From TrEMBL:
Residues 363-561 form the Tyr recombinase domain. It comes from Plantactinospora solaniradicis. This is Tyrosine-type recombinase/integrase. The keyword DNA-binding applies. Pfam families: Phage_integrase (PF00589).
Length: 679
């Protein structure tokens, strides 16, 4: 009402009705011959003035008493006449600074006809949103759906502001609209305020449509440069899993910790983990209102609950061990860091440690077998959406993380000097960019998406990691395409095409399995650890060694080469292997750990409980054996030992001469054992 007071103080026409002459000059002469005749509109104005001679009283009255579709207007003989004439008159008053239309009244009424010829009286009309429609179409929205979506918020904001110029809309106007909409939808009497609600319509569907309308309006206005702040898409779905807030003292220190330590993109995830703990604490120990009061006994109760009572809100089943570990780990790190920093309102001693973490099984990579891989790739090639196809092919041939693929920039694709495509993957989880080779099939699919996105000439979006304005490949309608659209939905279609679904019809292939497959294939083909690290974006060799473990196929091949009947073997253990004299325990262990026994010149079958062995130095251990695959290494080692013996003789070191000659003799014996078998 500040604007109203300012205007009233200037002696204006604020809160004054139009006279007959003023209204005739505004409406009747401007729209002769239209459906709503001058007589109709004068009747609407006259009936409104009879009901509300004082505009101040109208503005102060409850919204239910001011509705056109409420009594006495709902009982009028010509309801549509009253409604249109009443609404037009009130809207004209607002557009001429004679009153302010509040949002509850605007939400309770419909204004679709203001985008027809009659809307020109208010500065709107059929062409009012044309620039927004054109921009919406350019950035990927479909018409006429976008036109209808834009109208819902734009008309109401213009009427509330008393200004039809959408070029003056600000972020504050859009945020005010959202806040007022939330408040209106939460009213106890909302179902009596709109005719469709009274008739049984869903408030939630109407609310969702208007939320989408204000979101789309901000996207298009941002693309046009009218507003500078890009909109963040916020789901308005139900949240039955939303947990209550913690006591203020606890909430304050947790929020301070999150803002200081975590990147913005992980804030929601961290808050979810903390609320698991704080909601449990509020329920079981309401007396704890400050973390200083927290004790080890209470945390042990929480650990027990996490292991036995923490269930998924959707399925009602106990959460996975990894979720338990994540929940406890977040709390453990928080307590230790805040203690080290000397913060107040936190325990003065460590209450958790790594020993409190549940034991987690270390699984092997779930890579895709060749037949399944080929089948799902055929399904990906059958996808009709170019963005889905390109995203899935990049995942298959390079194995980036899903978030890295979504954030690919328009200039991400170039080529090596020989012309092979090269992909620049943006900084993501590891905060490091990397360049990797890209299969030509994925490169061709990516070029199609780059061309389509460039043609739309969209405004850049702020990158969540770098904070810089960025033009993305997978950008449409003012935001990044979702993980669900690019991967989940796409792979469900591909798996349906390939027949790779479970009993419930759900896909059996996820985008991360492509990452496991790429890492496993690189390891099996003998790629260096540094290569696997570079392609998959690992920051430590230990992460890549996870993939460097030989696959089941490779283990079986090596095992059968060495231990199957008739294998080409030499060494002290060769006879025991040929005669099948190994114990059942040794065979079971070797069947899964054979590759771990590899030495420079062969293998040692010594079990872990037997302790260390130096058989690779002396080649006389009863557990040592070698195969024909090591012949070249044995030849090189033989020459080396002979040269070392000659050098030791020249230096006058007789004991070294004896040692090197003995080793050379043992190697020569191994070669003699292998030689007849390879002829």
């Amino acid at each position: 009402m500040s604007r109203a007071l300012d205007v009233a103080g200037q002696g204006s026409t604020w809160l004054r009705h139009f006279t007959d002459d003023e209204y005739t000059a505004l409406v009747i002469s401007a729209d002769k011959g239209r459906y709503e005749s001058g007589r109709t509109r004068r009747q609407g104005r006259r009936e409104f003035i009879e009901q509300w001679p004082d505009l101040g009283a109208w503005m102060a009255a409850p919204v239910a008493d001011r509705l056109m579709h409420a009594p006495p207007y709902a009982e009028a003989r010509h309801r549509h006449v009253v409604v249109r004439g009443h609404r037009l008159y009130v809207s004209l008053l607002a557009m001429h600074d004679r009153l302010t239309l509040d949002y509850p009244w605007l939400f309770a009424n419909s204004f679709k006809d203001l985008l027809t010829e009659s809307g020109k009286l208010l500065g709107m009309g059929p062409d009012w949103l044309t620039p927004l429609d054109v921009e919406a179409l350019r950035i990927g929205y479909r018409q006429p759906a976008a036109h209808r979506t834009l109208a819902g918020a734009s008309i109401r904001i213009a009427l509330h502001r008393g200004n039809p110029d959408w070029r003056t809309i600000t972020v504050e106007d859009l945020d005010r609209f959202r806040a007022e909409l939330d408040a209106f939808a939460a009213r106890d009497d909302v179902r009596s305020l709109r005719p469709e609600f009274v008739a049984g319509g869903r408030v939630r569907g109407w609310y969702r449509n208007l939320r989408t309308s204000v979101y789309t309006t901000q996207v298009v206005l941002h693309s046009l440069g009218v507003v500078t702040e890009q909109v963040r898409y916020i789901s308005i779905g139900g949240r039955p899993h939303q947990r209550p807030s913690a006591p203020p003292a606890i909430e304050k220190v947790i929020n301070r910790y999150i803002e200081r330590t975590a990147p913005a993109r992980t804030h929601d995830n961290l808050r979810t983990r903390f609320r698991v703990f704080t909601s449990w604490l509020t329920e079981h120990h309401p007396e704890v209102t400050n973390l200083v009061q927290l004790t080890r006994t209470q945390l042990e109760e929480f650990l027990t609950w996490v292991a036995t009572g923490y269930c998924n809100y959707r399925t009602g089943q106990p959460v996975s061990v990894s979720t338990q570990v994540h929940t406890i780990s977040v709390l453990n790190v928080f307590l230790r860091k805040t203690l080290a920093w000397g913060w107040g309102d936190v325990p003065d001693r460590p209450l958790l440690s790594h020993l409190d973490m549940p034991k987690q099984v270390k699984t092997v990579p779930r890579y895709l077998p060749a037949l399944e891989l080929e089948a799902v790739v055929q399904g990906i090639r059958a996808l009709t959406d170019p963005y889905q196809q390109a995203a899935c092919l990049i995942a298959r041939w390079v194995g980036p993380r899903r978030s890295e693929i979504r954030r690919l920039e328009l200039d991400c694709l170039d080529a090596y000097p020989d012309g092979h495509p090269r992909l620049r993957i943006p900084a993501g989880k590891t905060y490091t960019e990397r360049m990797v080779p890209l299969h030509p099939e994925a490169a061709d699919a990516l070029r199609v998406c780059v061309a389509q996105t460039r043609a739309r000439r969209q405004r850049p979006l702020l990158d969540q990691v770098t904070g810089k304005p960025t033009h993305y490949v997978f950008q449409l309608r003012g935001r990044l395409l979702s993980d669900y659209f690019l991967f989940d939905s796409a792979l469900q279609q591909a798996c349906d095409h390939a027949g790779l679904v479970d009993a419930d019809g759900a896909k059996t292939v996820t985008s991360h399995r492509f990452r496991h497959t790429v890492g496993t294939q690189l390891a099996e083909e003998g790629a260096r650890i540094q290569t696997i690290m570079a392609i998959l974006g690992h920051t430590s060799p230990a992460m890549s060694l996870f993939y460097a473990r030989i696959s089941d196929t490779a283990v079986l091949r090596d095992y059968q080469t060495a231990l199957q009947p008739g294998a080409l073997l030499a060494g002290p253990a060769a006879e025991a292997i040929r005669n099948n004299e190994l114990s059942e325990q040794a065979v079971n262990w070797l069947s899964s750990n054979y590759y771990k026994t590899a030495l420079e010149l062969g293998h040692c079958l010594r079990l872990p409980e037997e302790g260390p062995c130096e058989c690779d130095l002396f080649l006389t251990c009863s557990k040592f054996f070698t195969t024909a695959d090591y012949q070249s290494r044995l030849q090189e080692r033989l020459c080396l030992e002979q040269r070392l013996a000659e050098d030791a003789a020249q230096r006058g070191w007789p004991r070294e001469v004896e040692r090197h000659n003995a080793t050379a003799k043992r190697i020569a014996g191994l070669l003699d054992e292998l030689a007849p078998q390879t002829r």
